[in-house]
Protein 1
Amino acid sequence: MKIAIALVTVFVVAGCTTDAAPDSRPEQISPPGALGPDDGLTLVNVRPDRITGSYVDPTTRASLVFDAVRAGDVLSMHLSTGDGRALVDIDTVGDTYRFSYLGGRLTMTVDRAWVEAVRTEGEDGPAAQDDSALRWDGDMSVLDETLLVPEMKSLPWMSRALGVRGITGSAFPASLALHKMARQSADALSVEVPAVQVQGDTAFCSRPTANECYGMCGPGCSCWSWVCGDCCYHYGCARHDTWCRQGQWYYCYNITAVIALFGC
């Protein structure tokens, strides 16, 4: 059940910076789309509104294929294994968002109006507390089953590789859902990845994170600066942190991608 909340969190992310020791300085980010040193990425489309490509984990050889589109509030994202097994699909259909897991064995729909209400009211407003707006159909154990797919352990590394290429969630909104799902898989599967120093990342935040790294993008107090471009507070990440603190585990640990709807 740990997969459900991660997808919603993809849209709202935050973080804060910490200085690294001289011998463990974060890897520097490359210009968007630049080739990485054997990073496993093959990119077909690299635009703010569309990121398409594949990833082969240099260590395990597990492979993933992705196609993510975002234009305003219109979202589409398809993630599958290299051999074509559907993992997570998101489509915008009229006034609703439709999420599908493991080829449609579990689906979830939510109205775009609910997402706007949560944005307007804030993370503590009544709309954000009403998770009945998320309408599930199918076997909820599919969320746990998704986490058992071996390729899901490679998702955090794919996200990091995109970040090193300069494909951050702030500069390339289409990639945000991928980064947020990856963050959730890292949480659920205890995957730790090294830091990345994004361009323009500074120790100053116009809104720093609150107590215990609340609102920072990344597992625990590990800053994934490539999710939203820095290590400061971001509403999307704070929404996810609130779900975790309230014990709403579907949205905290499961890779549902719902959080992606709220942006950074």
Protein 2
Amino acid sequence: MIEPGDIPTTPRPLSLTNDNEATTIQVPTSQAIATASPTPAPAATTALPFVNIDDLLAIQLAGDPQVSPQNTAAASSSGPLIAFVVQRCNPEKNTTSSAIWLVHSSGGKTDPAWQVTSGEQHDFAPRWSPDGRGLAFLSDRSGSVQIYLLPLNGGEARQVSHLRNGVTEYNWKPDGTAILAQSPWKPADDRDESDSSNIAYVYTRLDEQWDGMGYKQNRHQQLWLIPLEGEATRITSEPVDIVQSCWSPDGSEIAFCANRRSEPDLSVSMALWVLTLATGQMRRLTPE
């Protein structure tokens, strides 16, 4: 019987000339076993420390980079500027916060970035003005998410939007005179009456909640035109959500996605639509 510790051998081929002829195999001797070179032990590796809670809380996340327009005030001999968001944890307050930072695009690790917003609350979604002289961003510093504009030539950021239900998305008009925003709305918001939707929730459709926002309170995302000076104007009043909007290059039309079927909650498909501002007419470009 071969024990587990024995060294395996390679059998010699049998002779095929005579089936009755005896054959032998070679068994290694104890001297051969003693002279065999031992297998080297694997090199010891240095164990890395485990990640703890303090390490996770110290992580800062950078994201949403936005490059300033070429040949504008934000571009310099060091190249265009890049605006980005840095999110961090605040263990003492058990909260998170984020701030807007800037860095030169031609710089490297030795060219430090600098913070341009306070970051005491959540400042995020930076977007350059078409002329590169201002940087818009979203912030909840006033209690709801609104649009703020930071001039690059100095000064504090000022609040541009004052929408009742905050802003979810936005983008600049190509000429830089206004901002297109998306905000939840329902007809009752235009009437001076108390809102009892927080007392009891009545679900009548499958899409009564937004991810990350909760109960919709019968509101839908609508398009708003916000001038840099003056009051905002709602330009849609659809019973469905209008999302992912953007401008045409000449600023005369707005493209967006929406499911305008009679029962939109029964299908997740959306179509591409175009709104002409001069006439208020909508036309569908893709099938639903």
